[in-house]
């Protein structure tokens, strides 16, 4: 795995680190094996203050979104090395589709088989290019556009140029039956220009996985792409802290400091 695909090892390592804590927000027993030495090396290289905490909060927050959902179709857009198929309790009849680059999905399928992983839902992995016509292989795998879908877009949008990110969000909305929900995270524009992220952004660029886009107006972006914004939370705010965020939540109009948004939206 190279470039953006390789960052899946980093986030797996972050989940492993969180899982070791006595007060862990979740337990991912597969994360350490999936991260491997490369993942932990990347975790050390990218671990700016607040980064690992945010990744833990993001994982737990989306876990709770999924747990509250009654959708029988769930799609992880850019699934990476996510293991929710094995670690979460899924309602009977749930079909979980995982989309990501073909090389990553091929490696993941092989590694999960070696680890004898037992999935707790009907999981279907799909290797595809998310900047191309990815909905065709999703349909071929059994996804039904007339059925409401829970889309999870986690750790993806800031790796895309703005036009591509907006096009993906709009495509998800266009494919969604009424009652569908989108949940994920967005990076702030302040994160792209802050002096506190300069070194970290340079390391990501050097490793071939740069962050390319952020927005300080997440509700406007979602609305422009066909979604009705629901929850939008900053780490540390009520419902998006879990006792893990080490600072008071920032004001939305703060300049010069990095911020991430967790969001839900509906059609």
Spatial order of the strands in the main sheet? Answer: 3-2-1-4-5-7-6
- Work out the helicity level: 40-55%
Which residue ranges are poorly predicted, with pLDDT under 50 across at least 5 consecutive positions? Answer: none
Radius of gyration: 17 Å
Based on secondary structure, the structural category is alpha/beta
| Strand runs, count | 7
**Roughly how many Å apart are the termini?**
35 Å
Describe the structure.
There is one protein chain. The protein is of the alpha/beta class and 267 residues long. Helix content is 41%, strand content 16%. It has 10 helices and 7 strands. Strands 3-2-1-4-5-7-6 form a 7-stranded mixed sheet, with helices on both faces. Helix 1 crosses helix 2 (31-46) and helix 1 (3-19) crosses helix 3 (51-68). The longest helix has 18 residues, at 51-68.
